[in-house]
Amino acid sequence: MAARKLIARINPSNSALFVCDLQEKFASNIKFFPEIITTSRRLIDAARILSIPTVVTEQYPKGLGHTVPLLKEGLAENTPIFDKTKFSMCIPSTEDVLKNVQNVILVGIEAHVCVLQTTYDLLERGHNVHVVVDAVSSRSHTDRHFAFKQMEQAGAILTTSECAILGLVGGSDHPKFKEVQKLIMTSAPDTGLVPLSKL
C-alpha cells in the first residue's frame, strides 16, 4: 500500500507570508493590479492579526518604485522590506524568517518570473508553498496561467485568499476568528481567473 502523502496544512505557528514585488511602477502593466492589491491586503491584515511573520520584497526599487502604500499601511510594525535584484525572494536577508517556517503563503508579481522562481527555491529548501492565485498576476494572462501550471506541477499548492485565511484560523473557536472573519465578509474581487482545468 502506497504511503499517504502528508497534508501541508497551514496554521499561524508554522507559516509565513511572502509579499513579492507589489510596487507602484507595475500598476499600469499588471493584469487586475488593483484587485491583486486589494486581495493581498486581506492576507497582510490576516497575518498581522494572527502574528504571522511577513516578508516584503521590492525588485530594483530605484527604477520600479516602492511597495504600494495600501499594503504598507497594513503591515505590522517592524515588518522588513528588502531590496533585491534576484528574481527569487530567497535572498540572504530572508533566510532568518525561513528557519522555523514549514509553510510559505505567497502573493505578488509577476507569476511567471519572481513568484515562480521564489516557489522553486522554497520547494527546493523543503518548504510547502501555498500560492494565492487571486493575489498573483502577470502582465499577460498566458504567462499567469501557465505559471500556475508550472508551480503546481513542481509541488506548490494553489489556493485562494479566503481558503488561506480560513485555513489559518481553523475554525470559529479560534480566539481571533471574529476579527479575521471581518476580512472576508465581502468576497474577494474578481481577478480574471478561469478554471485551471480548461487551460
Structure, described:
Belongs to the isochorismatase family. This is Isochorismatase domain-containing protein 1. InterPro entries: Isochorismatase-like_dom, Isochorismatase-like_sf, Isochorismatase_domain. Pfam families: Isochorismatase (PF00857). Residues 15-162 form the Isochorismatase-like domain. This protein is an alpha/beta fold and 199 residues long. It has one domain: Isochorismatase-like (Rossmann fold, 3-Layer(aba) Sandwich), CATH 3.40.50. The chain is 37% helix and 18% strand. It contains eight helices and six strands; from the N terminus they run E-H-E-H-H-E-H-E-H-E-H-E-H-H. The protein has helices at 33-49, 61-64, 69-74, 95-98, 111-124, 141-154, 161-169, 177-181, and strands at 15-20, 54-59, 81-84, 103-109, 128-137, 157-159. A six-stranded parallel sheet has the order 3-2-1-4-5-6. Helix 5 runs parallel beside helix 6. The model has no long low-confidence stretch (mean pLDDT 93).
